[in-house]
Amino acid sequence: MPTYNIRGINVDFPYEAYDCQLVYMEKVIESLQNKSNALLESPTGTGKTLCLLCATLAWRRSFGEFSRGRSDKSSIRESLSQSVDEDMPQSQSSQLPTIVYTSRTHSQIKQVVKELKRSNYRPKMVVLGSREQLCIHDQVSLLRGKAQTNACRALCKKLTKRFCPHFSGAAEFVKKNPGIGDDPIDIEDLVNIGRSSGSCPYYLSREIHKDVDILFAPYNYLIDRGNRKSLKIDWKKCILIFDEAHNLESLCAEAASFDLPSSLLTACISEAKNCIDLSVARRDTSNDKTYSPDDFAILRALLLKLEKRIADVPIQSKELGFTKDGPYIYELLSELNITQQTADMLTGIIERACILLQEGENVTGGGGSHKTNGTVFRLESIGDIFGLIFKDNSTAHAQYYRLHIQEVEASSNDSFKGKTSRTLSWWCFNPGIAMEEFARLGVRSIILTSGTLSPMDSFAEELKLEFPVRLENPHVISGNQIWAGVAPVGPSGYSFNSSYRNRGSIEYKSELGNAIVNFARIVPDGLLVFFPSYYLLEQCISCWKTNGQQNLSNSTTIWERICKHKLPVVEPRQSSLFPLAIDDYMTKLKGANSGAVFFAVCRGKVSEGLDFADHAGRAVVITGLPFATLTDPKVRLKREYLDHHVHSRKSINKGQGLTGEEWYSQQTLRAINQAIGRVIRHRHDYGAIILCDERFSHSNRQAQISSWIRPHVKCHSKFGEVVYTLTRFFRDIQTYRPPKLEFVPNDDQEPARVSQSSPLSLDKINLEKLQTAFNPTSSLDSASTAEKVKRGSISIHMREIPPANRSTLTSGMLLRGLKMKSSSVLTSTGKESLVINGRSKQDYDEKAVDMATPILLKKQKLLITGHTQSTHEEKSNHFSNMVKTEHLQFPENICDLNRQETEVLADERTVKPDIRMLFRDVKPDIAKHKDAVSATVSKNNIETKGSAFLVEVREKLTVSEYEDFVGSMKALKSNEMKISHALQSIARLFCLPDRLSLLHGFKEYVPAKYRSLYEEIMISTTCDAAGL
Fold it and tell me: What are the protein's GO molecular function terms (predicted)?
């Protein structure tokens, strides 16, 4: 495992680090050493999370070894108290820094823990989760939200008869097992430990977190005031890390705001009335005076007055509503005698009311002693609102708020159905309030990182924190792996502009649909199409299904033409249906001839946090700018607030600040950058970014696109240019992309999803000859490989993206030189094409763009004369002493393959003329192999020939494609698939330009009675691949 010395800290990294990774780790350590905050942007696929973990934990380890069990930590602290580190004051040396690593969701935290397992670091750690993830109680685990919380708390009271059996053993279990958390554990691991030991996983994590080196948790554990107070952490020695922080500003603002609709207020009044009745009944039946009916009567009276006061507010315009500055909330409440002094009393009454209601539910629930009730009481929300308004016994924070009352139509589920109800809102427009609390707590450093933080100045301005350390990292991909372009017009020349005045026209929708038909035809495998809103998405699809055939000679609709090329999936509005949509997309992607298309929405679930790597997403289409609705009260007031703030700053000469229009535009482009980031997910991925709106041509729009994309964006004046260059991009990337080097994980890594197949023996297709050729030839230690291999290819699966730069080669993959010769045709520069012979993968990466450039200028015949058939020589090339190359064998009847192509080309009525160009480039390739093959292949050595064919199949297919190949063969053997379907599946895998030798070579292994069927499939498949 390589070790890098960065700013005096030795960082163990599991792979040979890219330059951008070293820069990223340097910035992390700089922030930690200087006790400063950092804003770090690094594109997805650059190993951001692993770099962040390794750099932070290496810095932490410089203070002393990790806490492996409680006894170890006490001894470490004793030793540290005797020798003070120069980076820590004397008063802080008795304790080690604690790292709190947060991300948006539990699924993202799960991925971070996987990255930790890949590293060499084993800190004491734990993941904090909610009861929903961790509860193992038979009845409470079935509940959700506050109902679950209430039920859990009720069962954990020692005086109750139904005391939770799992709760009592948590603390004792941790004492007897101090090693829990020494190795990386996830939510599932905690649940398994709890089930096997009988201890509550939720309270286990709460016990463990008191004494850890690194704590993992979702954002709300830090942003939410109540959750933060429950953490036993010394904040002055704490490092806070917010991963995927691009949404942090909106989350902070939402956490500090509230909405109080009429329906909620009515429910609270009803609950207060129930409390009066319950307390009176108790007093009458058992002389229980614990709860005073007078207190609940006062609470109900105040809530009734608040309801009436909100209803009496004059609203002149339904669109504008009633708006006041934030401090007006205190004036409104003071009229009801709700002040700073009385608020605490009311909060106490509300807490007692909730307890009484809980007890009343348990008595009247009818479930006997075994009933576990988890009713959510609306009065708790009123208590939270009062706590937010009167927090810290101060009113200073109100200046960052706006009070708004609006009339809304009651929903169908509301008791006010058919009536107009009102909602009182108190919105926070300064997300920095939550972050400033960390500064007051004395947190050592705050690191915010994501793939889309730009523009950073506005991001820092919104959070009201100083970020001395900043970074905008480039991507690790090379220029020939990305196509990015603006399509301002469609196939008919109609302008693309999704603004309000244009998007409703039939012409715009039809033009956009016809453009997507073209993209569906050109782009292989998965295609993502993002719309500005659900409304526009639904309007366009409706138009495509019913219209769009006016200018066509047949009656085919636009939707039918899209479905001809790719199977469609539409993102649902309902969150509950989203997992089904994802499964549907992956199923269609795997089963369709030419892939699937996912129609989604910017800021929707598809655009946030999902990985569409490799075949899952070869291109993303942005159909417009997703501006928020200007008439939305929250958007309008936010813009006004920022403009007022800028004006105030100017008046006191404190700089410009962020204007409302700038914020409005930047939020839009940040949403676009998030959607774009769904594709090109790792070092060896590739894809296209298609911006279908003329407004992307403006320099101010492009300046806000992620910095790693910006240099590649080209503006095309005609749609034909887009089609031509996009077609060439996918053709060239398949032809000229570097040969793959597949890697296996280290012992502590999750294994790659590679199917190691045994020798195949099928009934209907004679492949007994194809014996597996994937035996070890040599072994490599990770240290030597890290020094010699700079780049590598890796298998990727959706949502599980291991780093690209792994350091150990699989035993089954062969490194081969790549020899390319041009024909005598000259390029447009007058020079002959490059000849590349025996070059290492790293050298090929560095020259890939230069080599592709002249080929794009004029169509060339690039002859690939086959893999270098050299034996293992210690000094023959850059990879000597690393792997032992094997001879690549070709089928005997090359002449038959050549003759077959001649027959295909001759039948112009069956194969369209453009196919000749495709086969012309392959035919000399096969012919060139004749002499070399005849000299190296024995006609009687069928087993060797079959093995060599499998080697070539394994080399040219991706891991997922190879699994499909093996699956088709096994399905045939077990009669699970018709032979025609199996042959079609295999032919589709071999139909790309650089795999045509496989397409023809496989014919030899098809029994004679099925060869005519296979030839027909070959022709149709090749036509589909060429887009004909």
Answer: 4 iron, 4 sulfur cluster binding; ATP binding; DNA binding; helicase activity; hydrolase activity; metal ion binding
